[in-house]
Amino acid sequence: xxxxxxxxxxxxxxxxxxxxxxxxxxxxxxxxxxxxxxxxxxxxxxxxxxxxxxxxxxxxxxxxxxxxxxxxxxxxxxxxxxxxxxxxxxxxxxxxxxxxxxxxxxxxxxxxxxxxxxxxxxxxxxxxxxxxxxxxxxxxxxxxxxxxxxxxxxxxxxxxxxxxxxxxxxxxxxxxxxxxxxxxxxxxxxxxxxxxxxxxxxxxxxxxxxxxxxxxxxxxxxxxxxxxxxxxxxxxxxxxxxxxxxxxxxxxxxxxxxxxxxxxxxxxxxxxxxxxxxxxxxxxxxxxxxxxxxxxxxxxxxxxxxxxxxxxxxxxxxxxxxxxxxxxxxxxxxxxxxxxxxxxxxxxxxxxxxxxxxxxxxxxxxxxxxxxxxxxxxxxxxxxxxxxxxxxxxxxxxxxxxxxxxxxxxxxxxxxxxxxxxxxxxxxxxxxxxxxxxxxxxxxxxxxxxxxxxxxxxxxxxxxxxxxxxx
Length: 471
Prior knowledge:
The protein has 471 residues and is an all-alpha fold. The chain is 87% helix and 0% strand. Helix 9 (179-196) runs antiparallel to helix 10, helix 10 (199-215) runs parallel beside helix 12 (239-255) and helix 15 packs antiparallel against helix 16 (319-335). The longest helix is centred in the last third of the chain and has 91 residues, at 359-449.
């Protein structure tokens, strides 16, 4: 198993190296193009392309280009361009763990999208703001924004957006440890993106499904989805994705007590996250590495790793990591017989945990979930009623058409019968006329041949006015 892990790591490194060469070539071309651009609009477009080129490899560099693009967009006075850059800056800060700055920029973008009546883009902002509150451990607030996004996507019939919001709602269920429910939402997101052919989204959805299966102890199912996700990220050359999956596979090996394999995957992931300066992901991975070290009996190294993760988590407001690290540090100090520190960290864990999932928050989440279920049911009923109305209309049209055809058929039959009767009457009348004519002619001949009138008719026939001439 270890040999397989090492080969996988080597192949991953080779893929990243080759993709890095291709990316550098692309970036060099864009930088050369930027120097030649004369119009501000073309400079804006090139700057955004450069920002995107660095979006998965160097967050700070990407952010610099986005800020330069923002200056140009403001100068052009094009609000839709300004909103787009605010959105991207907000998302960049989110990946860096700068949640307050992220929220500020996302709200700026949202205000412009709302003014421009760009429903789809505004829904995306609602979903992204929900991600920030989720990272802050404010799950009720996060769910509120996710449901807003879902409602907006449904109103405009955006299937892909519905999938994104469903995935976000699934994450809330995941953090509430309702893993079967989380899988339902994650698989809905997965199916939508498979149908759309969105490879990157399929990779993300597969990772989420795998993570839920991992928590349920279904390791074979989890590994299947993790490898599916890893293959896609490898093929796309997305280093952040590769690192996330490696980190998660490390967690899978940890649960299977394959500690050396687990540590190798976590270490690979940590190096990529540190190169990207992704503080959020570094926090998670350091916590994961600390767990492996603790299981290996390397308590002092585990304490150092948990403490580093805890400090970063408190700095950026990552409550779920802070809660976990406090509990793990408590476990470490129990092993070293330092019960005072163990008790102190356990209290910290309980305090943070309660702030995340207090009774009021849970009630709010339940209310929002119930509202979501009601809205979903109402939408299903509405769709069903629409189908029934369509079916009734189709049946009505078909019935009317059938009645029309029958009426036309009966009319033709009636007209044919009427025509036949008329022809029959005409035939009888014709026969009657001919019979009368024949009878009258016979009567006339009898009259002519009668000796009583023979002279009269002969005189008239051969009279002066009808004189016969012989030649």
